[in-house]
TrEMBL record, chains A, B:
Catalyzes the NADPH-dependent reduction of L-glutamate 5-phosphate into L-glutamate 5-semialdehyde and phosphate. The product spontaneously undergoes cyclization to form 1-pyrroline-5-carboxylate. InterPro entries: Ald_DH/histidinol_DH (IPR016161), Ald_DH_C (IPR016163), Ald_DH_N (IPR016162), Aldehyde_DH_dom (IPR015590), G-glutamylP_reductase_CS (IPR020593), Glu-5-SA_DH (IPR012134), GPR_dom (IPR000965). SUPFAM superfamilies: ALDH-like. It catalyses: L-glutamate 5-semialdehyde + phosphate + NADP(+) = L-glutamyl 5-phosphate + NADPH + H(+). This is Gamma-glutamyl phosphate reductase. CDD domains: ALDH_F18-19_ProA-GPR. The keyword Cytoplasm applies.
C-alpha cells in the first residue's frame, strides 16, 4: 500500500515516481511494440551523439572514485568503445521480438466461453544495481521493450554517468512519443530511497537486483516487493566414468577458464572415481594456471593440488581457482551437488545416455547440461537475446531472464451472455 | 537460509519439517504421476473408511467452538455429505493430468546445443489456512499431484479434524509407496510456527494463504518466502450503452446474486449513462433482495437505492449488497475500475466489439470478461480442475491457480561437447 500519513519523505518520493511509472505503464500497454523499438533506436543515436558528454560525466565519476578498488573502477569506467557497445546493445534489444500479446493458451469451454491467456507487461519494475553505468541503458531497454515502466537506482559512484545515459534514454522515449516516466532514474545517493523501493509493494511490481552477492542478499532480506534474484553460481561439472576424455578436458577447461568472472563458470569439478583419465584432466587445469583445491583422493592425482577446506565446496571463486572432488559414481555426484550446489548451472560429461538423463532429471538447478560447458549459461547463448539476469529462485522465471521473464499474463474471456446459473 | 545458532525452537521445528519435505520432494521428482494419483485414490478410500473417526474428531472441534461465529462454525462443521465431497475431490484431483515433464519450449542452437524448458514441481509449498478442514485434503492433494511436498498449517479450531484428515492422506501416501513427509501437518496451535513458516526462505519455496483478507494481508506483511496471494475481489460489471438488455440483466443478476460469498461475485455495477434500460436493470437486483448503494445519478433511478459512501467503491461485500455508479462512457468506466478495482475479475456487457476489445486490453485485472458473468472466475469453470486459489498478484501465476501454477521449470541442455571457446 502506498500513501498514508506514516510515510517518510523517501517513501513519498518513491511513491510519486511509482505513480508516474504506473501511468506510463498504462500508456505503454496501449502502444505497438514498434514504438518501443523506435524509442530504443533513437536512444542509441542519442548515446552516440552524446558520447562526449557521457564520457565527460564518466570522468567526473572516476575523479571521485579514488577509494574504489581497481575492479570497481574498471566496472565504472567508460571509453569510446564501451559507449558504442551501449548504443549497439540498445539497437539489439530494439530488434528483439516481444512476447507481448502472445496467446499462451486458448480454450473454449462447453458453454461456449472462450478463454485466452495473453502475455502482458508486469507493470512497474525496479532495478537496483552497482557501479556499471551500462546497466542504466541495458536494463532500461529490456524493461521498455517488454512494455514495462522502470525505476532505475544505480550506484552513487556512477551518478553522473547514469544521469547522462538516462538523458539519452529519455530523448529516445520522447522522440518516439512515449512518456519519459517510462524510464525513471533515482539519482539521489540517499540509501533510504533504496529501502523505500524495496518496500513499495503495490507501487513497484518486481525488483531486479543487478550486482554482487552482498547487494542481492541485502535486497532479498529487506524486500516487500517480489524479487527476481540471482545469488551465486556455484556450478559443478561432473566427469562421469563414461566421459570421452578429449571432450571432458575441453569442457572442463572452457567451463573454468574461458572467463573466470562470469556466473556460469565452473567452481567445483567432480571426477568419477572410475574415470580413467583424471590425471590429464587436472593437469590441463593446472598447466593453464588454475589453482586446484581437492579432497584427499583428488590431491593424490597431482602434488600441486592443495587441500580443500569445507567452505571450498560452497565457494563461488569467480577466479582461476577450482575445487576438485573424487566421487564414487552418479549417486555420489548427485548428492554432492544437492548438498553444495546453488541451483544455477550444473553439467555432466558422459557417453552414457541413461546416466545423462538421470543427471538432467535429478539435479535441481535452473540449468542442467549434458556434454556442454556451464559457460553457456547466458541469455544470448540460449537465443533469448540480452538478459536482465539469471534467476536462481524457483518462482515466475528461472535461468536466463530476458523479455518473457519481464512479462506476466491475463485471462481474457469472450462470451455470448454466459451465466453460471 | 535454515540452520544456525540463532534459531528459535519454532524455527527449528519448521526447519526440520522443511528438510524432511525437501527430501520427500526429491523422491516425488522421481516417481511417475500415476503414483501420486494412486496415493490420492487411496487417501479417498481412507477418508471414506475413516468417516466416523473424522466426524468424531470434528465433533471434538465443534465442542470447543462455542465462541466462534455461526459462519465460522459452519465452515468448520463436517457431516457425512461433506466427508464424501472431500473423498470425491481427492479422486477428482487424482484424475487431473499433470503438467510435469511438459516441454514448454525447445530450441536447437546453431552450435547444435538443444535446450528444452521442462515443467517440474516447485518443491516445498506451505499452506496456511483457517477453519475449513477440507483444505487439508484439497490443498494437500493439489500439491502432491503437482509433485510438491507440502506443509499444512490449519486453524487451531479445526485441529482434531485436520489431524484425522491428514492421517487419511498419510495412509494414501504410504499405500502408494510415497514418503509420508510429502504431506506434513503443523498441528500445534503455537502461532510462532506460522511466523517460522513465513520466514523459512530456502526451506519453503512458496506460501499459499487460504482464507480471509486479514489472514492473507498478515501473511503478505510478514513473509520472507514468496507468497501466492489472493486479496479481495472487488469485481465490476460495466453495462455499456450497446449492451443487450436481456443479456445485461441476466449477467448482472448472476454476477451479484448466484452466490454472494464467492470472490468472483460482482461488487460494483457500472451503468453507462447512455444505456437505455438502466431502470429495469437495477429493479432486477432490488426485487431479488439486493441492497443497492449508488451515486447521485444512480439514486435517481429508484428511490430504494441508498447513497453510496466513498468506501463503497472499494468494498468487497460478499453479501447481497452492490455499489452502483453511472459512468459517462467506456473511458469513465475504465478510469473507475483503475481507481477502485482489485485486479481480480471485471466484465463488460456490450454488443460493440471495439468497446469490448478495448475493455479486455485495458482493464488491468487477472481476469477480464466480455458478455459473461464474473462468477466464472473459478479454476473448474476455466477447465483447470480444482484450484488452490485465485492469484491477484502479477508474478508467476495469475487468476485461477491449479496444477500448472504449482510448477516451475528447468532448462535441460543436451550437447555433443560444445564449449563457448
Amino acid at each position: 500500500m502506498l500513501g498514508g500519513w506514516s510515510m517518510t519523505s523517501a517513501e513519498n518520493r518513491i511513491a510519486d515516481m511509482a505513480q508516474q511509472a504506473r501511468a506510463a505503464a498504462a500508456e505503454l500497454a496501449r502502444v505497438e511494440p514498434a514504438q518501443t523499438a523506435k524509442a530504443l533506436r533513437a536512444a542509441a543515436s542519442a548515446v552516440r551523439g552524446g558520447a562526449s558528454a557521457i564520457l565527460a560525466a564518466n570522468d567526473e565519476d572516476l575523479a571521485r572514485a579514488g577509494k574504489l578498488s581497481a575492479a570497481m573502477q574498471d566496472r565504472l569506467r567508460l571509453d569510446a568503445a564501451r559507449v558504442e557497445n551501449i548504443a549497439a546493445a540498445l539497437e539489439a534489444v530494439a530488434a528483439l521480438p516481444t512476447p507481448l500479446g502472445d496467446v499462451i493458451d486458448t480454450r473454449t469451454r462447453p458453454n461456449g466461453l472462450r478463454l485466452d491467456r495473453i502475455r502482458i507487461p508486469i507493470g512497474v519494475v525496479g532495478i537496483i544495481y552497482e557501479s556499471r553505468p551500462n546497466v542504466t541503458a541495458d536494463a532500461g531497454a529490456l524493461c521498455l521493450r517488454s512494455g514495462n515502466a522502470v525505476i532505475l537506482r544505480g550506484g552513487s559512484e556512477a551518478q553522473a554517468s547514469n544521469r547522462a545515459l538516462h538523458q539519452a534514454m529519455r530523448t529516445g522515449l520522447s522522440s518516439a512519443g512515449l512518456p519519459e516516466a517510462a524510464i525513471q532514474l533515482v539519482d539521489d545517493p540517499d540509501r533510504a530511497l533504496v529501502s523505500a523501493m524495496l518496500r513499495a509493494a503495490g507501487g513497484i511490481d518486481l525488483i531486479v537486483p543487478r550486482g554482487g552477492k552482498s547487494l542481492v542478499a541485502a535486497v532479498q532480506a529487506d524486500a516487500r516487493v517480489p524479487v527476481l534474484a540471482h545469488l551465486d553460481g556455484n556450478n559443478h561439472v561432473y566427469v562421469h566414468r563414461a566421459a570421452d576424455p578429449a571432450m571432458a578436458e575441453a569442457i572442463v577447461i572452457d567451463a573454468k577458464l574461458r572467463r573466470t568472472g562470469v556466473c556460469g563458470a565452473m567452481e567445483t569439478l567432480l571426477i568419477d572415481a572410475d574415470y580413467p583419465a583424471a590425471i590429464p584432466l587436472v593437469e590441463g587445469l593446472l598447466e593453464r594456471g588454475c589453482e586446484l583445491r581437492g579432497d584427499g583422493r583428488a590431491q593424490a592425482l597431482d602434488p600441486r593440488i592443495r587441500p580443500a577446506a569445507a567452505e571450498d565446496w560452497g565457494t563461488e571463486y569467480l577466479e582461476a581457482i577450482c575445487a576438485v572432488a573424487i566421487v564414487d559414481g552418479l549417486d555420489a555426484a548427485l548428492a554432492h551437488i544437492a548438498a553444495h550446489g546453488s541451483g544455477h548451472t550444473d553439467a555432466i560429461v558422459t557417453a552414457d545416455a541413461a546416466a545423462a538423463e538421470r543427471f538432467l532429471a535429478e539435479v535441481d538447478s535452473a540449468i542442467v547440461l549434458h556434454n556442454a560447458s556451464t559457460q553457456f549459461a547466458d541469455g544470448g547463448e540460449f537465443g533469448l537475446g540480452a538478459e536482465i539476469g539469471i534467476a536462481t529462485g524457483r518462482l515466475h522465471a528461472r535461468g536466463p531472464v530476458a523479455l518473457e521473464g519481464l512479462t506476466t499474463y491475463k485471462w481474457a474471456g469472450r462470451g455470448s451472455g454466459q451465466v453460471r446459473g
